[in-house]
Design goal:
The longest helix has 14 residues. α3 runs antiparallel to α4, α4 packs antiparallel against α5 and α6 runs antiparallel to α7. The chain has seven helices and no strands. With about 120 residues, it is mostly helical. The protein is globular, with a radius of gyration of 14 Å. The model has no long low-confidence stretch (mean pLDDT about 95).
Length: about 120
């Protein structure tokens, strides 16, 4: 769990290559996990590194294992968006925002969702 938490802190608050590499190294073993949260962290690290084609299948597996996890659905939606899958991204971002709970990423998800619903601004 410490590796999971440290990796998420690194990709949330750091943007430098060394921090992103460290997060990748910490989560590499998570790619074969069956735990949704660990898969999510590994996929989100790939996403933050700009490795969208690597992130997408991992985040999809995470969402399969934890379909009610709002943050995982947000991460999956963002990866789908970067992979050009706008309809899927819209669906997952809507699912991420389907509760009244406010998350740190809620505003970002709402803004992205609004841009998908009204692409011309």
């Amino acid at each position: 769990m410490a590796a999971n938490n440290l990796a998420m802190l690194l990709v949330t608050y750091k943007k430098d290559r060394h921090s992103l590499d460290r997060a990748r190294d910490l989560t590499a073993v998570f790619a074969s996990s069956s735990v949704g949260g660990l898969l999510d962290t590994n996929g989100w690290v790939h996403f933050k590194r700009g490795e969208y084609s690597d992130a997408l299948p991992i985040l999809a597996r995470a969402a399969e294992r934890a379909p009610e996890a709002k943050e995982i659905r947000y991460h999956l939606g963002m990866a789908e968006l970067h992979a050009g899958q706008s309809a899927r991204a819209r669906s997952d971002l809507e699912a991420a925002l389907s509760s009244a709970t406010k998350y740190p990423w809620s505003d970002d998800a709402r803004n992205v969702l609004a841009s998908l619903k009204n692409p011309t601004g």
